[in-house]
Description:
The complex is a heterodimer.
Chain A: H1 24-47, H2 51-58, H3 61-71, H4 75-94, H5 104-107, H6 115-133, H7 137-151, H8 158-172, H9 181-197, H10 200-213, H11 227-246, H12 251-267, H13 271-288, H14 291-308, H15 311-328, H16 331-348, H17 351-368, H18 371-384, H19 390-418, H20 421-433, H21 437-441, H22 446-451, H23 467-474
Helix pairs in contact in A: 3-6, 4-6, 6-7, 7-8, 8-9, 9-10, 10-11, 11-12, 12-13, 13-14, 14-15, 15-16, 16-17, 17-18, 18-19
Chain B: E1 2-11, E2 14-24, E3 47-49, E4 56-57, H1 60-82, H2 91-122, H3 125-143, H4 150-164, H5 167-183, H6 189-206, H7 209-227, H8 232-248, H9 251-278, H10 280-284, H11 300-318, H12 325-341, H13 345-362, H14 369-381
Antiparallel strand pairs in B: 1-2, 2-3, 3-4
Helix pairs in contact in B: 1-2, 1-3, 2-3, 2-4, 2-11, 3-4, 4-5, 4-6, 5-6, 6-7, 7-8, 8-9, 9-11, 9-12, 11-12, 12-13, 12-14, 13-14
Amino acid sequence: MTTTLPPVNPAGSKSVSTLPSLPRSQRSAKQLARGAGRPRQSIGKLAGIDRADVGAYRNSYKHNLSLEILQEGYVSSFIELFQLFDQQAADRESAVIIPGSDSGVHEVPLLIDQHDKLDVLKSKLIEAEEARRSGAPEKSYQSYLELAQYFENFPSDQWLIDHFHQRCMSESSKVEEDGGRKLAEANYNIGIALEKRGDLSSAVDYLEKFYNLTTEQEWQDKIGDNLHDIASLQLYRTYTCLAEELYEEAPSVSIDYLKKAFHMANEGGNRTEAGLASHRLGNIYEAVGDPEVATMYHKGYLDRCKRDKDKAGIGKAHEALARCQQSEGKLEEATEHYKEFVKIAEEVGDKGVYSQACSSLANLYNMLGEYGNAVEYYQKAAESMETDDKERIELMNISQAIAQTHHKLASYSTAILCNTAKLTATLVEWKDYRDDGFIEASRPSTRAESCLSGAAPATPVAPQTTLEESCEGKK
Amino acid sequence: MQILLLNTYIIHNEIFQVRVTAMSLNPLANPKGVKLLCELCQKPAYLQCTSCRVTYYCSEEHQKVDWVGIHEKICSLLLPLRTPIPLVSSEEERKHRQQQLLQRQKQMIDMTRTEGSKLLFEGAHEAAVPAALQALRFSIAVYGLASVELVPAYLVLGEASIGLGRLSQAEEYLSQARWTVLKTPDCDAAIKSKMYRICGLLQAAKGNFGEALKNYANDIYHAALVSGPKHVKTSGGYFHMANVFFRKGQTETAHNIYSEVVNIWNQMLKNVVKMEDSQPESALATFVDKPAAETEILDEAQEAEAIQMLHAIYDLQQNNANYGAANMVMLLHTLALLHTHLLGYLKAQEFVQDALSCAQESELGIDLSDVENLKNFIATKA
């Protein structure tokens, strides 16, 4: 028994100079343990396994990784990593499982099971901590940025990407020399990440911050683009997306966002985007029912397209303008614009657009009462249309026929009413042969006019009125 | 009957007089088969404590040491535990008495263990021994010989041995503890963490820094599993690890870890003081409804640990010129919070003043709102 008994001290020490031994029954148990342990120890030594190695085999990967980090003394890295594990576990627990549907959070494999990711995390976190200790926050910012970029390859690890972008932001605020550039970049990264996920409203906040921070600065990124321009471009895109989303529920909010987008696009000097923004604004004002403002914006788009020599754009602009004018009631100007549209569509050579243009113009002529032109354009529309679209072709043909009818209506009614022999003969001939000469022959000439003197002429601009009605009117 | 008057025992910077009475007894006069043994050394006992009459000692010294160590606190409590239960008629009553006995024993275990830990943190290793022993005895009585519950008691004994410099003895206790833990596959991580911590202490005392670090790493990992990596229970592990780094000479690492420790304690103490401020009565009373489970109260051992750790860090940092001003302010603030909690308002005020002057000297934009609040709070209390 090797437990120490109190030594006999002849000087008579006053204090308890020894510790009490273990309880008697314990000693035997301990001895047994020690005795049994000896052969085990020697086996271990024979096999060349150290006690530490045994631990490495028995413990989980997470355990071993933590031990490695701690033994080198990187306590903050350990804390951060551990908190990430805890966060994932907590997310899983709190996520409500809807039976029958895919429970998104639970399908993502646990971080602690993905060993290669853990290794990357460990090395980068240690780098970041080293950088922090040596007082170089831009290096730690760099490490966190690399981590965020690494995890972008794994779309299921969105939470990690967000986490590391946030860390970038906190590190960047410590960087003093660059006048807030890293902070701005961090805001930009977070904004982009949020946008990718679809969380547009939060993305907008961060991008606006980025925009404000880059206002006075001349910073350039690796390609050489000015950061401020990038900011305005990105904001333009985000605002446009937001506007589209909100279009159904809240058109006025949508309009605000589009206006902001327009402002951004103009500022950045991005002409094509500015033009598009202008165009969108015009469309939305049309939809809301304010054609005047719409016209203004569409004109802006037109100018932009002219400058850029974007023919398709010019065509669209003309079309849009024509629509606006039409809704305002300025039909002649509308006609002008439609004509331009047709011309350009012809130049561009896109048959679909061309036929569209022709049919729009023909409709307008129809409304105006210029049936001759209407017929012409319906013809063109039908011809240029693709042969697959049989419905539309038929529609065009029918419209053309209707227009032709109206066109002939005036002459026809005069011919019948006048009741002269010659006219009747022409009428009968026409019934037989259906040629176009009828129109010429029986054009409401002075003869016909004298026939009908006193009778209200069948007005061409009233296609709704039937023959009977005009007769009644005459009576 | 010998009356022993013990004058002027100076312990914990307090001077008090101890009056311990003892009755001498003759081992030959004991009933047949009854061998009364000394509390501390298990030799035949010649003295009996008169206040409880169930505790025996072999000599005056042992009685003194035991009294100072633990007996003063548990004297009255020992009486019901050591007298045999009188026979009662009904089964229920007996069961009820058994239950009560068990309850009392468990309370005793807790109390002795906390007392032992507290004494250890205060640095009074010798005085901790009797307390630790009692803890061990009662644990064996309640849980049996090879139970996991014995491990904390062994750990306290081990730590006391290390403190007294008896490393071989400590190793014995610790190997017993390790063996018990190994035999219990589903051992609680908290106990594992404590075990690794003391093992680390032993290795550090022996000078095996690598082994010590491994042990501390395990300690921190297990503590983090139980209460999270930013809890005060884990911070003890960080502190000891930092000590090892410091002794190895890697001072920068050590200082960084110390700052982490200070941060954790700062957070905890802020909550504690805030809570005390809002419920001044319930913080002191223990028999009223305890505060909600989320806000933790510090028990005595933790308080002693905090005092030891924070003052140790403070002493170290006095000599360190590179310690950033922000960290220094944080440290002083934390110390002030601690003393406020312990109701030592004068000291707290001193620390607050130091913190403010340090912040002003450094001219950095350190957030002093917390410090200001604390200052006002102390002013209202003092």
